[in-house]
Amino acid sequence: MANYKILPQLGFGEAVRLASSRLSVFKGRSRRSEFWWWLLVVLACNFILSTFVTDLLVGCLLSIVVMFAALSVTVRRLHDTGRSGAWVYISYALGAAGQIVTGTSSVMNDYIEIAMSGNVDKLMAFFEDNAGSFFLIVLLGIAWLLSCLVVFFMVLIDGKPEPNKYGDSPKYVLVES
Question: Which of 50, 53, 101, 156 has the most CB atoms in a 10 Å sphere around its CB?
Answer without folding.
Answer: 101
